[in-house]
Amino acid sequence: MKVVIGLSGGVDSSVAAYLLKLQGHEVIAMFMKNWHDTTGVLKGDCPWDEDVTFAELVARKLDIPFHTVDLSEAYREKVVDYMFSEYEKGRTPNPDVLCNREVKFDLFVKEAKKLGAEKVATGHYSRIEECIVNGKKVYRLLAGLDANKDQSYFLCQLSQQQLGISLFPLGEIEKPEVRKVAAIQKLATATRKDSQGICFVGKVDLPVFLQQKLKARKGDIIELPKDINVPVFEDSLPENEISEQLLQEMSVPAKFLAGDGVIAGKHNGAHFFTVGQRKGINIGGKAQPLFVINVDVANNLLFVGQGHDHPALNRKGLFIPWGEDHWLRPDMKLKPGESREELARIRYRQPLQEAKLFARKKGLYLIFKELQRGITPGQFAAWYDGDELIGSGVIFA
Question: Could you please report the per-residue DSSP string of 118-157?
């Protein structure tokens, strides 16, 4: 089978390419140039020109054809501009999820098909399994067997069509074994550190990066007391017959006014912060660390509170309006009035949480058994049936 692999210059995609060749596939490597601007990128954080050198060295070592494709214009439009727009609204997008949906498994696939690709592969730690449901072929996205590296969350917006053309050779391998294989095969990336930060951009000083389009605006940081009045819910899953009004109360974050707390300091723009953030508040001398509780971009106010256990930082549930939901398994989509117990996470590497998904007239309510810290508008919630990721959605509130 002719397989085009996205060779990134990292150890994961390098070993994935080696394994594909070992399996007898006709392997072609293609490197994506998706970002050229270095504004806000921390010095030495794997610029793309270094990545492409490593990718080419690996392709040469494996004796496979090597191509490059420049998708930077589309990446800026579909991922980076969306980031700016979301931060401007006080929401926090996940560029890696968007990059996978819009670039790696869409535009890149189209380029790969020009090279005759029957399948496209990446170095993601996830698995794909085929099954038959009601006489139709269905692709299941499963968590990678390495629990510490499972990347299914980043693939939570893929479609059946995208899963059908994809291969993940590392899905059943643990990271230490990947490093070992790379060393044995003397691949140039064997000891290279894993990339961090924004997909294809790298690790950034976020306020500096965002100031390309978003202006700094001085404003007040309001510290909220721990005895502030917020709804309290027990650690349990609600019954199926629960009213939509109560679901809303469980899922909508409390709104605060400047008078609800005391001015603790100044910030340079509420839109540069995200719910649950600890670093960058730059206020010391507190008994416990400060965390961002609420971002009010309309009034340029940043609400913070002390400690992980601040009651306003922890919520019972979240809301996803219809149209912002996505089902990797369309056959398992809930209809209004239905509910189902799931396992769910609201961020990468978070242990799966017991939850219940309620489909109602306005959208989906994801209610957790235990309170969740730092539920962040703009991020993705993903829900699983065992180790299969079946759906996801953009957190509205």
Answer: SEEE---SEEEEEEEETTEEEEEEEE-S-TTT--GGGGTT
**Tens digit of pLDDT for each residue in 327-372?**
999 999 999 999 999 999 999 999 999 999 999 999 999 999 999 9
Matching CATH number, 2-208, of 3.40.50.10140, 2.60.40.10, 3.40.20.10, 3.40.50.620: 3.40.50.620
DSSP type of residue 41: B
Q: In sequence order, what DSSP letters do the residues of 249-306 get, joined into one string?
A: HHHSPPP--GGGSEEEEEES-GGG--TT--TT------SS-EEEEEEETTTTEEEEEE
Length of the chain: 397
CA dihedral 189, 192, 196, 202 (to 10 degrees): -70
Cβ-contact 61, 222 below 8 angstroms = no
Are 154 and 380 contacting, i.e. CB atoms less than 8 angstroms apart?
no
pTM (2 decimals)? 0.92
By annotation, the residues acting in catalysis are 99, 199
- The domain ranges of the chain are 2-208, 215-394
CATH-assigned architecture of domain 215-394 = Beta Barrel (2.40)
DSSP 173-201: --HHHHHHHHHHTT-TTTTPPPP-SBTTT
Question: Which residues make Cβ contacts (< 8 Å) with residue 73, sequence separation at least 6?
Answer: none
Judge whether 348 and 152 are in contact, CB under 8 Å.
no
